[in-house]
Amino acid sequence: MNIFMMLAPMSVFLGLLGVGAFWWTLRHGQYEDPAGDAARILIDDPEDRPLQD
Amino acid sequence: MAVTYGLDPAPDLTAFLKRRPGAEPTLELLVKGARCAACLGKIERETAALPGVASARLNLTSGKLVVGFRSLAAADPGLVVANLERLGYPATPYDPGQAAEAMDREGRRLILCLAVAAFGAMNTMMFSVPLWAGLFGQELGPATRVVMQWWCALVATPCVLFAGQPFFESAWRSLKARRANMDVPISIGVLLTLAISFSETLLHGRDTYFDAAVSLLFLLLIGRWLDHQLRLRARSAASDLLALQAATAAVVGSDGAEHRKPIAEVAVGDVIIVRPGERIPVDALVQSGSSEIDNALLTGESAPVALRPGQVCRAGALNLSGLLRLQALARSEDSAVAAIARLVEAGAQSKSKYVRLADRAAAIYVPVVHTAALLTFAGGWLVGLGPREALLRAVAVLIITCPCALGLAVPAVQISASARLFRRGVLVKSGAALERLAEVDHVVFDKTGVLTEGRPRLIDTRAQAIALAAPLARASSHPLARALAAAAGPGPRAEQIVEHAGLGVEGLIDGRRARLGRAEFVGAENRGGRETEFWFGVDGEPPVRFRFSDQLRPDAAATVAALRARGLTVEILSGDVPLSVAMAAEDVEVASWRAALTPADKADAVAALQAAGRRVLMVGDGLNDAAALARAHAAMAPGTALDASQNAADLVFSGEGLWAVVDAIDTARQARRLALQNFGFAALYNLIAAPAAMLGLVNPFLAALAMSGSSLIVTLNALRLRGRA
Hints:
The structure holds two protein chains of two kinds. By secondary structure, chain A is mostly helical. Chain A contains two helices and no strands.
């Protein structure tokens, strides 16, 4: 029973963390342009080459 | 007077720059045709490389490009737009307006409520599972049960109070207005459930419904969010259509140079230049230049009207052939358009009295359920259950009959119906529009631009003559010349083009002087007749005549027949002259038609039909239809319609065909049938569940199961519409 008193708040806390994270993504406009975000990853920026030794 | 001008004057778009104090100016553009990562990269890179541009970011989902400029002085929006067109992406300035921002805020709030309710439902469920297990004879000591119940309370209460706000606020507003909408029983049910569960926890009772309260809100918020998405998508698509018509006028400044101004900023007395192919922005007096204007969208007349200096022209008319120099007689709000806008407003008010299907269901549902709950309480107490047990049963009745299925029943159906119509090029502006459309029993068509294509089409098919005149036609911006060029297809252009205002175009074809235009300009005799005509002549050869007419849409007759087969009566109300209306009516086999109607006549005719108990669907495109569109029970407008008409219409269809009207009516009727079916399911479920709750046979586990089960059924039933696309 004692372990429950620790696990229960922990699980609620983790859930809250999820809601908080979702709220953060919502606030930062991460759902404004799903198509654009999917496309941007394919664009090669010529300046963005790996460092050469 | 011969006037020469470039076909594509660089537009001055500085009026659309957004200036915020302390920040650099930005420009928002709606870009067409960007689909992939390559387009995105190209557009952003090429735009950002332009002089004066600091940043460019394209939203691929909505097609909006936000361009940031280094400073106001360096900003050249025209250059940005011209550059985008060179890349192959036509762009127009876009202004979302305040209504859009409020809508976005509302959407963000709903989704946050949904997230909180989801969190609450899942975590409360975690503590509820042991409680449910205890109901079925598993070992659960009273102390553990109380702990679990307190945990449920701790998690569920803040979630319910937060996620329930949209419902509480709406219920409060409607109570203040002395009405009861669906949100009143929802709010009462949820809050009462919460209160009773608290008291049961304090009294060490067995049954608490914390999980039911929060998962109920979760399910209802899904329905609410679907409804919001429907309106959001319709609105953004509608504003895209409007943005494409983002209207500016070329005003001649005191320095003699032309500046582009938004139409709303044109003042009385301003001198305006209107090129062929442009619309007259405000009511104005012709100072110089002569031309023909097309009043089709304004009055429904299909034949062009000649215009000379000293005459007055109305806002909304299309300038066909000559460059006009006008003096503004009224501001945009005071132009002829405004009188029509007032009629539209009056019509829209009558429409807002419509009571939606869900609210009509709620009006029956609420008294029944609340009476049942009250009877359970009173009856239970009378037969000796004790007040606490009686109250608990009454709450169980409220929970189990809570209108979760009802809240989902309609939005789920309407969103799948509108998604289906959207794929077929029909834009539904609201769920209420679909409900009204399903009730329609009489269809009124406008003629010009609805039954007909609303633009001239060449009816000659002499390929040789067409090929001869084509090089000159391609070089002209006159609508008749364009129709001729369209019939000829791509090819060479004539040289040394000079357009003669109000007469025609002159140029060199293979070194020979040729003219294309009105009969007297080419040196022929006007023969008259019902068709619009255009002449072509080359030095030393007899002139050739081309005839044009406003053709019926290819599927107009089939559409009318299909509507009749569905038990609807069809009528034509037009502002055009009786002769051409009669001919169109004969072609589509409609017996009842009226011609030469003013906008007010049309609205009155529709109102009279409605007063006689008919449910009228108005299909119209012109400004002269806007009032009738607003007055009718349901209204549709083609995508080519003026923005005023599109605003007044409930549905906007794109594409060449008229068949969309049949499609929309079919889908609306199907959606109504499914929604009623869903109500039927919900009623059936309540008929079984409510008596069980009254008899005390329902425990929290069964309540949770029944609630999600009924919601699932109505949602799946709604999705059937989607499958049959």
